């Protein structure tokens, strides 16, 4: 019985070491040195699909070290094999920090103050209240709900939008296409934390931006495929959006000649909002290995039909 580590090679030592620290008896192989494919009973994948996994006919589960699995679902798997994604305390904590950081920067007008300082201008802006600064989160799942809870704690009116109805303390919840427009109407700042699926591809488009108030701010920490790039540029040019903070891009790293690099109204962070840490994620992987061998349902299962 062998676990095949087929995730990012630079993280192999950390993941295998952390899992082995919990169970020293486990046997690992690393991609592409798997030996007999029939001996592989569990596969760990990461930020890219390593290759054709359908040759591992005895694999009982595939475990992603990433929360977003859109890139993996395009790959080839043994038929019917269950797939699990990562839900990790460290990942949630980092995402909450990243988003709260940009929301507070927007509330306190960090962009305007930095611009004023560059011109040696003493800019006394009127102080604003969090309670008058509605924030909306597209995707009220693990990361969206954790971010919403922290923003509620800080006094922001928070709205969340998801596929199905949700109940999160202090958050005004909306769901489905019919409620998207109402959700957007009062927002000062919109966060995207959706998974990338055929339904959510290009969701950040002209139609959505039109539903926001003039001068709203966009923060996309979901996936680059959510952004309709031409519509984003048009919304910035027209003043519909004041500026955008983007952590994720259709092509990563963002190509050097991409127009986003040259925009003063786009803040680029290089897909660093959050990562899974082996130290905190290993226990769930081990639990899923145990469940897979016992034929039990996995923690944090992915529904390939739904796409997340
Ligand atoms: P979850 O699966 O827990 O939550 C996804 C949320 O999106 C759910 O509320 C779901 O609604 C909603 N959703 C999905 N499809 C639709 C739709 N068509 N319309 C409306 N709502 C929809 O995911 P996580 O919170 O763990 O992660 C979210 C995403 O964050 C990841 O998929 C990834 O893309 C991104 N991410 C980015 C990172 C970064 O560093 N930038 C790091 C980690 C993740 P419902 O519950 O009703 O189905």
UniProtKB/TrEMBL annotation:
Domain D-isomer specific 2-hydroxyacid dehydrogenase NAD-binding, chain residue ranges per copy: 103-273
Pfam short name (any one): 2-Hacid_dh_C
Keywords: NAD, Oxidoreductase
Top-level taxon in the UniProt lineage: Bacteria
PANTHER family linked: 2-HACID_DH_C DOMAIN-CONTAINING PROTEIN, D-ISOMER SPECIFIC 2-HYDROXYACID DEHYDROGENASE NAD-BINDING DOMAIN-CONTAINING PROTEIN
UniProt name for this protein: Glyoxylate/hydroxypyruvate reductase A
Organism from which the protein derives: Dongia sedimenti
């Amino acid at each position: 019985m062998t676990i095949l580590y087929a995730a990012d090679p630079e993280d192999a030592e950390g993941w295998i070491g952390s899992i082995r620290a919990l169970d020293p008896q486990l046997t690992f192989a690393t991609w592409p040195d798997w030996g007999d494919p029939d001996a592989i009973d569990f596969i760990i994948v990461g930020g890219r699909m390593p290759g054709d996994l359908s040759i591992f006919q005895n694999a009982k589960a595939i475990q992603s070290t990433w929360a977003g699995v859109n890139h993996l679902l395009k790959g080839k798997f043994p038929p019917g094999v269950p797939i699990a994604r990562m839900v990790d305390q460290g990942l949630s904590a980092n995402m909450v920090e990243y988003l709260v950081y940009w929301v507070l920067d927007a509330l306190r007008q960090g962009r305007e103050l930095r611009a004023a300082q560059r011109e040696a201008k003493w800019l006394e802006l009127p102080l604003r209240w969090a309670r008058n600064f509605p924030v909306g989160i597209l995707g009220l799942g693990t990361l969206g709900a954790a971010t919403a809870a922290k923003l509620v704690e800080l006094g922001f009116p928070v709205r969340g939008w998801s596929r199905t109805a949700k109940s999160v303390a202090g958050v005004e919840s909306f769901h489905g296409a019919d409620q998207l427009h109402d959700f957007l109407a009062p927002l000062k700042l919109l966060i995207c934390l959706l998974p990338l699926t055929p339904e959510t591809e290009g969701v950040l488009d002209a139609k959505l931006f039109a539903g926001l108030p003039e001068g709203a701010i966009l923060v996309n920490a979901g996936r680059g495929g959510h952004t309709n790039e031409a519509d984003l540029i048009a919304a910035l040019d027209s003043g519909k959006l004041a500026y955008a903070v983007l952590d994720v891009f259709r092509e990563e790293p963002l190509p050097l000649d991409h127009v986003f690099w040259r925009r003063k109204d786009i803040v680029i962070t290089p897909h660093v909002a959050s990562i899974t840490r082996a130290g905190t994620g290993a226990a769930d992987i081990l639990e899923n290995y145990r469940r897979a061998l016992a034929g039990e349902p996995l923690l944090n299962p992915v529904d390939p039909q739904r796409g997340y």
